[in-house]
Structure formats: C-alpha cells, structure tokens
Amino acid sequence: MDPNQSSPSAKPNHLTLTAISAKNGVSTIERWQLQSPFATASEAGVSGVSFAQLGKTSAASYAVIPPHYESPPHHAPQLQYVCFLTGEAVITIPETGQSATIKGGRHDLIIAADTKDVSRVGHITTYPNGEETVAISMPFADGKVPEHVVLEDGAV
Predict the structure, then answer these.
(1) pTM higher than 0.85, yes or no?
(2) Which of 6, 59, 71, 131 is the most exposed place for a label (fewest CB within 10 A)?
C-alpha cells in the first residue's frame, strides 16, 4: 500500500506511515495515521508548502548499512522515527511472518516502537539490495509515540 494512500477510515491531510509496534508481547506491523494534520506554510521561501509536525526528537543518528545485511531478531532500541533515505529494508516479525518492505525515498518514514519492554522477540530487518542503505534514526524526545490512530493491523 502506498504510505500516503487513504484507507476508508483515514483522514485526508494527515500523515500515514508504517509502525512496528507490539501487542501481547509480540511485535506487529501496523499502518498509523498521525493526529497532527498537515498545515500550509505562509513564510517567504516556503509559502504554499504542506508540512506535518513530527514532534520533538533528540540525538538523531545517521547510519550506513552494508548491502545484503541481515540483522538477527532485535528490538527497537528506543521509541523512534527511522527515515530510510536510500536502499531497501524488509522488516519481518519472526513469530507471525508479517513483513513490510520499505524503499528509501519518498515513502520511507517509519516508527519503531517494539522495544524490549513490550515485545519478547522483536523484529528482523534485512537489506536485500546490492547497495548501501542510508537511514536516519530520530528518537522521540519525551519517550512517547505521537498521537495516532491505527488504520491497519498486519502486513503492509
């Protein structure tokens, strides 16, 4: 599904994204819609540009992941956004087989929220391409995920 495609319960002009969350101790892949709507800028230089507030983040990091890298099962180290700038990541939930493919570029922003306090096993991330994947991780400054609505529960 296109990350910005609306589902029947989606509100127009709200950012939707893939989230790795957890229910009953098992990681899950969901489609979330953030509650903060897009706004239109009126400042010189960006007048007419749509933007969505993502909330406060802290200690962002930039990672270069080698081609064909495969992670063992792991948890999100903290509640965070992950933005894939290039490459491709395949996220799989080992306990359920759910998976999501994230391609670096326009629809590349996810939320990783399956920390070890809510998920027993976590998720596996593989990078199948023959190129490096570049990602930026941005932990939430207050340790809380943004206000959201779950639009879909399951593979996306």
Answers:
(1) yes
(2) 59
Task: Classify 103 as helix, strand or coil.
Answer: strand
The H or E element spanning position 22 is strand 14-23
Locate 144 and state its tokens: 């809380």
pLDDT tens-digit profile of 24-74? 999 999 999 999 999 999 999 999 899 898 999 999 999 999 999 999 999
Q: What is the mean pLDDT of residues 82-102?
A: 96
Contact of 25 with 120, CB cutoff 8 Å: yes
CB-based contacts of 8, cutoff 8 Å, min separation 6? none
Quick check: 43 and 99 in contact, CB under 8 A? no
For 59-72, give one letter per residue: b (16+ CB within 10 A) or e. Answer: eeeeeebeeeeeee
CA distance 81 to 79: 7
Q: Which residues contact 114 (CB under 8 A, 6 or more apart)?
A: 20, 21, 22, 27, 28, 75, 76, 122, 123
